[in-house]
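Cross-posting from the chemistry board since nobody answered there.

I work mostly on the small-molecule side, so proteins are not my area. We synthesized NAP and want a rough idea of how it might sit in this target. Sequence and SMILES are below. Is it possible to get a predicted 3D structure of the two together?
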Amino acid sequence: MRKDLVLIAAVDKNWGIGKDNKLLKPVPEDLKRFSGFTRGNMIIVGRKTLESFKDKKPLPDRINVVLTRDIKFNREGTVVAHDIKELESITENYSGEIYVCGGASIYSLLLPYCSKAFITQIDEEFDADTHLVNLDKEDDWIIKDAGEWQESRAGVRFRYVEYINKKHTIQG
Ligand SMILES: NC(=O)c1ccc[n+]([C@@H]2O[C@H](COP(=O)([O-])OP(=O)(O)OC[C@H]3O[C@@H](n4cnc5c(N)ncnc54)[C@H](OP(=O)(O)O)[C@@H]3O)[C@@H](O)[C@H]2O)c1
């Protein structure tokens, strides 16, 4: 499996990412940025995250790869992978960026294959039932760049932090 995937996630102070199969707090500025990064590229999501999208539909203008163990799963506009091996053959010759877009189970599964992570930190503690691993506690992951805290029109403070995986990134 290639090791240049890009993880992208919005987390709260406890690295919470969701509750009841929804985002904790949609930050419109961040959703716009997410769209800007991912449009024209490939995204990888778990089946539950796909079902959290509007009308349970794949995101437009992107190749939507969905991981599910259900061999009968078939959803228009998606490419289905049932395991890492299938994901490997889907992604191996793709020349655009490949974004790992969650949820928690997919972040955990694919973290070893990510070379960087775009994390949006929301300066709040929400009641979450789903979490991303805390990259600050992972030996291989370091902060490359941390932006200024900003005020969202959704009424929360947030900032963008870019992490890199020391194992897969040649720094220079
Ligand atoms: N804050 C953020 O940036 C962000 C981003 C994305 C999602 N989220 C949130 O995260 C939550 C959903 O996360 P989740 O962990 O519950 O679900 P998920 O990762 O989106 O989907 C889980 C499903 O993926 C499939 N799957 C998982 N591992 C697999 C493997 N090794 N091989 C094949 N299929 C596999 C299974 O589908 P089947 O059951 O069909 O087999 C599993 O039930 C929601 O609250 C969502 O809003 C937050």
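Reply from a structural biologist on the board:
Welcome over. Reading the output above for you: The chain has one domain: 7-155. The mean pLDDT is 97. Happy to explain the token format if needed.
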